[in-house]
Write a structure and sequence with these properties.
Layout: E1 10-14, E2 21-26, E3 31-33, E4 36-38, H1 40-48, E5 63-65, H2 66-91, E6 95-97, E7 104-106, H3 123-130, H4 135-143, H5 172-205, H6 208-226, E8 230-235, E9 238-241, H7 251-258, E10 277-279, H8 295-305, E11 319-321, E12 328-329, E13 336-337, H9 340-351, E14 354-355, E15 362-363, H10 366-373, E16 385-386, E17 393-394, H11 397-408, E18 414-415, E19 422-423, H12 426-436, E20 443-444, E21 451-452, H13 455-466, E22 472-473, E23 480-481, H14 484-495, E24 500-501, E25 508-509, H15 512-523, E26 528-529, E27 536-537, H16 540-550, H17 555-559
Parallel strand pairs: 10-11
Antiparallel strand pairs: 1-2, 2-5, 3-4, 6-7, 8-9, 8-10, 12-13, 14-15, 16-17, 18-19, 20-21, 22-23, 24-25, 26-27
Helix pairs in contact: 1-2, 3-5
């Protein structure tokens, strides 16, 4: 993704398009994006015909954030697409392919006007509407009034108009009336045929399952727009606002923040590929003051009180949660989970449509089911997907493609919603938000008063300290450890191995952590110096050990004894 040319940036600033406090640019300043000049105020005029005010005022009155710039670019691209298709439609020509001929003949129709003083005004519309399908009939009607010459054999199939009896005269009005009647009959037949074909095609294109999917989206949109439920996005166990992608970890603050957005704009952010995630802690009707505590009751309230249409063939419009700090419960079976990611994975058992035919496991996405089925394959003929750039192989196309884009193509796929930066991984984007945008994450432990800024660290602390999940046991003694790396470090106390050597002084250590501590003595200032010998140390503990071992009769040791 090509970033815009750096220009005036206001951080923080209030975007006048969405009203949020973000890093913003100036609406009437010229920027460059992907080699193209762009002025955002001019884009508003081109796309919407909207002339913005206060462009000559204070800098704080003419700001636009990166999110709104992206949406404005999408609008410009859509407008250009529509104009291109409209130009193709206007330049298209109508052709007739004759049987047995390779060439296409352009259809040109000449309508002969009869010398009538008062011509019915609708005749031109009638002829124009059916000229493509019935040009030959019109030519026969026009020729029937003129020459009575013999026609060639190729025209014998055409329907000819009978000549009047000898001595009889045909008035011009009767000719026009007859022509109009025939054209009207033809038009009626065509209209009925087109209506029948379109109805039949619609039924063929839209099977019942598609109708149900569309009705699910329509019901979800109606409920979200008219209630106080909170739609959200979850990345791992982090909550994001569905409207502005802001990361908010506290469920209470997430609900308060969502109220700042207009729910009628939800249709701009909804997706048909996945079921929406919605917090239903508060439902209540936005159209009146009625307090409602269940989705079924709210749907009945909408239809009876506010005359809103709710489709009856839909079972579940979205996946329902009641978010809170601490343990989360499944609203379907009341099973509890420590983290949202585990609860979301569990919800596939209730709403997942991709089911394993071997063990019955449920998944939301087909690629997860395919990856799961490989675990049932006892034979070693599981399809692998090799990388075209290196010798690595992967068990799914998704993993292979993700590896290629990250490692070989160096493509960034995680954009920051507050600036133009794009990152290779989700964690890199998170670190960027913490360092440059001031986002904070705190995860308190339920068993003690410790607080961590990483969910993984909290999980390890809880399992090691409070649950005592020490699965790795030493075969030579009774000690147990939480991590296998801790067991490996412990085994050096039995074997006496010292694999970690200092490159500066040659000292060896049994653990890598001990070597890292030692390396600080070469790179930092040694604050603790011995007054009795030239030795100095970076840590107080090493200095005490030195004094006790090298100078045991010194007064310093007596003070710390």
């Amino acid at each position: 993704m090509s970033a815009s040319k750096k220009g005036p940036i206001v951080d923080p600033g209030m975007c006048r398009c969405c009203g949020l406090l973000k890093k913003c640019r100036l609406l009437n300043f010229e920027y460059e994006w992907q080699g193209r000049r762009e002025v955002y105020s001019e884009l508003f005029v081109d796309c919407f015909g909207l002339v913005l005010s206060h462009l000559d005022g204070e800098e704080s009155e003419r700001l636009i954030c990166a999110t709104c710039v992206t949406r404005l670019r999408d609008a410009r691209a859509f407008r250009q697409q529509v104009l291109q298709c409209e130009e193709k439609l206007l330049n298209a020509t109508v052709t007739i392919h004759e049987v047995g001929e390779d060439s296409s003949i352009k259809l040109e129709v000449q309508v002969k006007h009869e010398p009538v003083t008062e011509e019915p005004p609708q005749i031109i519309d009638e002829v124009d509407s059916d000229v493509e399908q019935h040009s030959e009939d019109m030519e026969v009607e026009a020729q029937a009034e003129g020459d009575a010459e013999a026609e060639p054999a190729s025209t014998s199939r055409r329907k000819r108009k009978r000549a009047p009896p000898d001595g009889a005269t045909v008035s011009d009005d009767s000719i026009h009336t007859d022509l109009l009647n025939r054209l009207q009959k033809i038009k009626n037949k065509l209209d009925s045929k087109i209506l029948e074909d379109s109805t039949q095609d619609t039924r063929q294109r839209r099977p019942p399952i598609l109708d149900k999917e569309l009705n699910t989206i329509r019901n979800a949109r109606t409920i979200i727009e008219n209630s106080y439920v909170t739609p959200f996005i979850a990345v791992f166990s982090d909550y994001h606002c569905v409207y502005c992608r802001e990361m908010i970890l506290d469920p209470n603050k997430l609900r308060e923040h969502t109220l700042e957005h207009d729910p009628r704009t939800y249709k701009e952010f909804e997706t048909s590929k996945k079921m929406a995630l919605v917090d239903i802690t508060r439902i209540d009707c936005r159209l009146c003051q009625t307090h409602i505590d269940s989705i079924d009751s709210f749907k009945e309230h909408l239809t009876k009180i506010h005359n809103k249409h709710i489709f009856k063939d839909v079972d579940s419009e979205f996946i329902k949660f009641k978010l809170k700090t601490g343990k989360l419960n499944c609203l379907e079976c009341n099973k509890s989970f420590n983290f949202f990611q585990a609860l979301k994975k569990h919800m596939a058992e209730h709403f997942g449509t991709f089911i394993c035919d071997v063990c019955g496991a449920h998944y939301f996405e087909e690629r997860h089911l395919i990856f799961h089925k490989n675990s049932h394959n006892t034979e070693r003929n599981v399809e692998m997907f090799p990388c075209t750039e290196c010798d690595k192989t992967f068990r799914s196309k998704y993993s292979r493609n993700f590896h290629i884009s990250r490692i070989h193509k160096n493509e960034a796929a995680y954009p920051c919603n507050k600036c133009d930066e794009v990152f290779l991984t989700y964690h890199m984007r998170y670190r960027h938000k913490m360092n440059f945008h001031g986002e904070k994450r705190q995860f308190p432990c339920e068993g003690c008063d410790k607080v961590y800024n990483c969910r993984k660290t909290l999980r390890e602390h809880y399992q090691r300290t409070h649950l005592q999940l020490l699965r790795h046991e030493c075969s030579l003694c009774d000690k147990k450890f939480y991590l296998p790396s801790a067991l490996r470090d412990h085994m050096t106390s039995h074997t006496g191995e010292r694999h970690y050597r200092c490159d500066y002084c040659g000292k060896t250590y049994p653990r890598k952590k001990a070597l890292k501590v030692h390396l600080l003595s070469h790179s930092t200032e040694k604050k603790y110096k011995c007054n009795l010998c030239p030795s100095s140390y970076t840590q107080m503990n090493n200095f005490k050990n030195h004094m006790k071992s090298k100078h045991p009769l010194n007064e310093f040791n007596e003070a710390f004894s």
